[in-house]
Amino acid sequence: MPSLSGWPQSCLPCFYSESALHHLAAMATEPLRLAWLPSLTARLRARGFEKRAGAIFTYTVSNDVIGWLGVNTARRHLVAGSVEVFPVVGVRHQGIERIVAELRGEKFHPYLPPTVSSPLGQLMPDMRYKAWAIGPNDIDTKSDEVVAAIEKFGVPFMESGSSLREIDRLLNAGMGAQHQLIYRRPVSLLLLGDVARAMQVVDSSQEGLGTRDDPAATEFRSFADRFRVRYGLNSAD
Length: 237
Description:
By secondary structure, the chain is an alpha+beta fold. Helix content is 48%, strand content 16%. The protein is built from nine helices and six strands; from the N terminus they run αααββββαββααααα. It has helices spanning 12-16, 18-25, 31-46, 94-103, 139-160, 164-172, 178-191, 195-207, 215-230; strands spanning 49-51, 56-62, 65-74, 83-93, 116-119, 132-134. Strands 1, 2, 3, 4, 5 and 6 form a six-stranded antiparallel beta sheet that branches. The model is unreliable at 1-16 and 23-31 (pLDDT under 50).
């Protein structure tokens, strides 16, 4: 995965935290957001994107794969009346996500979270943080720029995940957050028919937890146990 150096640390949780993704989907309405979001939404819809909750959009790639777009915002250090937007793009494989949700004891969500993801700027030639400052007088112009970048760099990334094999490659390249990828890597291998390797990945990830007893570690152990029971495999030593 491209390095995230240079990205504001305060922004990184917005890209990858599941709770932040849900927060992005349900952002409270406020005048500044209303000023730019309809302009961006209209342009994205014209290019085949579907508006979801908040500032999340999806794009049909295939029957079981959707492209994912989340538009994060910030206002620090900007003049009054302006907002900075920085898109995150992803790919969601519904087959993987159905199994992950089931084994985690969660209700399947139709578009959250993406299976793999990347800040849009990391997919552009400079491979660095990229945001657009939108003011009240240049909303349409900047919306055009943002959507052009999404079309040129984000959509090809989404469409590259049309096959399960490519999704597996992106998972192994670390395109996303470790606390999410840890669940999706073995499920991808399972769907590819490599059950033995999937089990090795589960065992290795569980062994890597060591003696941790925090909620995240406990949750993954439960997932690993369900994985073994569901697919008739013996528990790890």
